[in-house]
Design goal:
With 213 residues, the protein is mostly beta strands. It is built from four helices and 15 strands. It has helices at residues 129-133, 138-141, 151-154, 180-192, and strands at residues 2-8, 24-28, 31-35, 37-40, 44-48, 54-65, 70-74, 100-102, 105-107, 116-117, 120-121, 156-163, 166-173, 196-201, 204-208. The strands form four sheets. Strands 1, 2, 3, 4, 5, 6 and 7 form a seven-stranded mixed beta sheet that branches. A hairpin with a 2-residue loop joins strand 8 and strand 9 (105-107). The longest helix is centred in the C-terminal third of the chain and has 13 residues, at 180-192. The two termini are 29 Å apart.
């Protein structure tokens, strides 16, 4: 069972603080999540934080519905089922941000896949095993990135890479220069969670090392 502290997000809509819809800040064991709604199925109480603000505090197990931005905290973990993320209409990885070949047609950064269109992949059931079936961006493969970080919404693709000096999160621009709110959120989260970040700004790469591993 985890302890949660919940606070009103007074700076929502500002860089690194989510969108205007992210009304709540939820802290689980020191890790922050931004939420549009919070549902408590457990008893709660108030605790004074550093400064004049008051937190809602409770204990339980958290579930995140990324489609609605809802955080639900319940008594039993078996009552929670984590939603499965899907690409839906997002095809950013097909639009020139992966390298490979599909049925004789090569694609690579700067050259989209021959088979991707406005309605997505036209050969989805017959798409190649690699990289099409095996590739998963970090948004799809994990749940710490918020819903608005989906590549077609944030215009960035986050991928986890292993290098000689440790694990890095690579944030690649996908169709436009990275927005400052996207970069701010990523850098703040990475610093708080001691994650190394390699990010692209207007085509140029930058590095921030937060972990010694």
């Amino acid at each position: 069972m985890n302890k949660y502290l919940i606070r009103f997000n007074k700076n929502r809509g500002q860089p690194g603080r989510g969108t205007d819809a992210h009304v709540w800040r939820v802290f689980e064991n020191g890790v922050e999540y931004l939420a549009a709604q919070v549902k408590l199925n457990v008893p709660s109480w108030s605790e004074e934080s550093e400064g004049p603000d008051w937190n809602i505090a409770c204990s339980g197990f958290m579930q995140i519905d990324h489609d609605t931005g809802t955080v639900t905290i319940s008594k039993k973990p078996e009552a929670l089922a984590k939603p499965v993320r899907t690409c839906d209409s997002c095809t950013k990885c097909c639009q020139g941000h992966l390298s490979g070949e599909a049925h004789g047609h090569s694609f690579y950064p700067g050259k989209p896949c021959f088979f991707v269109g406005e309605k997505g992949c036209s050969i989805y059931e017959d798409r190649p095993h690699s990289p099409c079936r095996t590739f998963k961006c970090e948004w799809l493969d994990s749940d710490y990135l918020p819903m608005w970080f989906r590549p077609d919404l944030s215009k960035v693709i986050v991928v986890k890479r292993q290098h000689d000096d440790g694990e890095w999160l690579e944030v690649c621009e996908a169709g436009q220069k990275m927005d400052s709110s996207v970069l701010s959120w990523m850098l703040i989260w990475a610093a708080n969670n001691k994650k190394n970040v390699r990010y692209q700004i207007d085509g140029s790469w930058n590095w921030v090392k937060n972990s010694d591993r």
